[in-house]
Write a structure and sequence with these properties.
Elements (H helix, E strand, L loop, with lengths): L13 H4 L16 E3 L2 E5 L3 E6 L5 E2 L5 H13 L5 E3 L8 E3 L2 E3 L1 H6 L7 E3 L9 E5 L2 E5 L15
Parallel strand pairs: 1-4
Antiparallel strand pairs: 1-2, 2-3, 3-10, 5-8, 6-7, 8-9, 9-10
């Protein structure tokens, strides 16, 4: 007889989320995924990924409410956005709409399944909206006022 209560593996694991965490000594509060309420987050302050709660992640209230609210709004309004499959990144990144996004971050998205991005990143203050099996994310655009590629903070 089959076990009808068998748990389904989550689409994204805690290990998958580690690649979105900060390795910067000044952002140590973001060096591991964390849980707030019903969701688990991973961020380095330029990208944030949200998935359904993973109990193994520590409970913390780190994300500014404005970012949490943007992710809630993104999830609620996903049907109103124009989703395209994640374009292949060029060596230095890609331009979507009027914004540039680094290949460093776009390549990190490869650990996620069925990744789509909004084709018009003006909906969420120029942040790139990301949708994938199991969650959502936001990526800040590259700054144009620096000598080297650097993303804005979310």
């Amino acid at each position: 007889m089959q076990n009808i209560h068998a748990q389904v593996a989550p689409a994204v694991s805690l290990n998958d989320l580690l690649s979105f965490c900060s390795t910067d000594s000044e952002q140590q509060q973001f060096n591991e995924p964390f849980t707030t309420g019903r969701y688990t987050y991973a961020t380095d302050a330029a990208i944030v990924i949200r998935v359904d709660r993973i109990d193994a992640a520590h409970e913390k209230l780190l994300l500014p409410s404005s970012i949490r609210e943007s992710l809630i709004s993104l999830a609620e309004n996903e049907k109103n956005l124009t989703w395209i499959a994640l374009p292949e990144a060029w060596p230095f990144g890609i331009r979507i709409g009027n914004n540039d996004f680094s290949s460093v971050y776009l390549n990190k998205l490869s650990v996620l399944k069925n990744v789509f991005v909004d084709s018009n990143p003006t909906h969420f203050r120029d942040r790139l909206c990301i949708k994938f099996d199991g969650g959502f994310g936001l990526l800040a655009p590259l700054r144009r006022d620096t000598d080297h590629a650097q993303h804005y903070a979310l």
